Amino acid sequence: MDDELHERVREVIASVPAGSVATYGDIASVSGAPSPRLVGRILGEDGHDLPWHRILRADGTPAPHLLDEQLQRLREEGVVPDGQRVDLRKYRWRRDTDDDAGPGALF
């Protein structure tokens, strides 16, 4: 993986605002990463200073080893999970299409 892609993934993750979530696949799509797994790898190795807790699996759940801390951090930001799952229809990050300050819109 090149440094440019690595930094682009970090930039997209950093742009997910409080009160919103995105999936690993969303971040891969916006950043041009070849897979959601690469996004997870970057977060695992170099995500300590990013809002990592806002990134979820495709079904709206955190990774099992992060479950309690991740859901607590999301609750503190106003994201109310339904059990151990976040309703992606309600909380999924949507970037304004007019916003050209960063990577493109998710939708």
How does this model look, in words?
It contains five helices and two strands; from the N terminus they run H-E-H-H-E-H-H. With 107 residues, the protein is mainly alpha-helical. The protein has a single domain (1-91), classed as Winged helix-like DNA-binding domain superfamily/Winged helix DNA-binding domain (Arc Repressor Mutant, subunit A), CATH 1.10.10. The chain has a two-stranded parallel sheet with strand order 1-2. The longest helix has 12 residues, at 3-14. It is globular and about 40 Å long. The model is unreliable at 97-105 (pLDDT under 50).
Map the helices and strands.
Blueprint: H1 3-14, E1 22-23, H2 24-31, H3 36-46, E2 55-56, H4 67-76, H5 88-91
Parallel strand pairs: 1-2
Question: Can you summarize this structure?
Answer:
The protein has a single domain, classed as Winged helix-like DNA-binding domain superfamily/Winged helix DNA-binding domain (Arc Repressor Mutant, subunit A). It has five helices and two strands, in the order H-E-H-H-E-H-H. The chain has helices spanning 3-14, 24-31, 36-46, 67-76, 88-91, and strands at residues 22-23, 55-56.
